[in-house]
Specification:
Elements (H helix, E strand, L loop, with lengths): L1 H27 L11 E2 L4 E4 L4 E5 L2 E2 L5 E5 L5 E3 L5 E5 L4 E11 L2 E11 L10 E3 L1 H4 L5 H13 L9 E4 L34 H10 L3 E4 L18 H9 L1
Parallel strand pairs: 2-9, 10-11, 11-12
Antiparallel strand pairs: 1-4, 3-7, 5-8, 6-7, 8-9
Helix pairs in contact: 3-4
Length: 246
Amino acid sequence: MKKINTCFFLLTIAVLLTCMSCSMEIQTASLTPKPSPVPRINGTRLFGIRPGSPFLFTIPVTGERPIRYEALNLPAGLVCDKNSGQITGVIEKPGEYNVTFKATNNKGSVERAFKIVCGNTLALTPHMGWNSWYVWENHVTDKIMRDAADAMVSTGLIDHGYMYVNIDDCWAIKPSSKDSTLSGEPRDTKGMINSNRRFPDMKSLTDYIHLKGLKAGIYTSPGPLTCAGHVGAYKFEEQDVTRFAE
């Protein structure tokens, strides 16, 4: 009887391990079909921008490369790069502008209507992107953010309308920390907020993300400290907004 019970136990373990292995294989398998080689324009059909603010939008297109991008009837101040699909520039005059996107490769061509709204109302559609907190929490660094931007492009997420790479908490100085990479002077003599040593050059990082055709987001707190104990914006709101825009 003991021998039978032992065999049954071992058989049960073997079955469980097999099921776990199958489950793991299913979880790691991608069920998303590969995009067609024929060009397809994806993402939002609407985009908001303030007058006089830098404009950056990458036309999200799947399909076999190379692709030629066009944006017809762009408002004055904007240009479209035919090789990357990045639309850049500045719109000075408020208003609604109806544009037509066009993408062409050796498999075909496609067009789609797009509206640019220049005014004081932003966030006209849900933001699509990646946030550092849910993976890295207080371990985030400059390199991690650059790698995230690279992955947004290499995985094709940018071609489906993903556009934001957001730094969450823990980029600023943490006054209570004994970690030399987090400690330091919270602000300069003008009250401008400083990043910690894990982010040696925020302007360079932001430029890197923008060159990918993506937008860089950042986190702050209305209080003197963030949730993780880093410097917040309390009583320095104007200086921090100015720093973020630099």
